[in-house]
Structures are given as C-alpha cells and as structure tokens.
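Something for you to look into today, if you have time. What I am after is a single protein written out in full by you. I want to see for myself how the chain folds. Could you add the entry underneath, on a fresh line?
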Amino acid sequence: MGERADQQLASAALNMALQGRKQVEETIHHSDQGVQYTSNAYRQQLETEQLVVSTSRKGMPYDNAVMESFFGSLKQELTHHEDFASRDQARVQVFDYIEVFYNRQRMHSALGYRTPLEFSAMNEVRN
C-alpha cells in the first residue's frame, strides 16, 4: 500500500505475489489499463517473468471480476467497518486481512470451499 498507485508499487506487489510460488506454464497476469501496468518497465518485468499478459477492456470491470469481487469483500469485511488512525495502521490491517484471513482462513465457494492457500497447494501437487 503506497502513497500512490505507480509502476514501482505495482512491481513490488508483483514481486511479492511471485515470491515463493511455483510458476506454472502460462501463468496469466491480468490487470486493468492503469498507467502503472502499461509502463515499459512493468511490461518488461512481465516479459522477464514469462507471464501471459491479459488486460481488461476500458470501462469493463467484469473483465476482471475476480479482483472486483476481492475488493468488494475487502471493503465489506474490513475497510467499511474501520476508522484507521494512520496509513500505517491501515497497511497492517489490510496485510493481515489478506495474508492471515483471506488467503489462509476464508473459504471460497468458487474454490470448492477451500482457502486460496489450500487450492494453490492442491494445484501445485497436480502440476
């Protein structure tokens, strides 16, 4: 969580997402058309990581329904109920929501009522 959504923040987030994960063939990176994702440096990073680039059409949030759903859950389950005292407090609570609750504890019907961590581990065994 940064001061602004720029290429450096997007690159750092991508590095976090890729860290410690087994990359499977044809891993898809989907984003909107934000300037942070369309910059030359970010596109080069995607190419270096051998990620398949997928971009939403302008004004079509349904192209990225998974992320729209995630941010809806984040807002409903955390941010709409909190009055953060500082950016640092918000950063810590959002990190905990994602890394502790959402990925490790929260069951997802689209994943067969598994957590994202369980689903990912199950798919790594298959590949």
Observations:
- The chain has a mean pLDDT of 91.
- The chain has two domains: 1-54, 60-126.
- The beta strands are 28-31, 52-55.
- The CA atoms of residues 110 and 116 lie 10 Å apart.
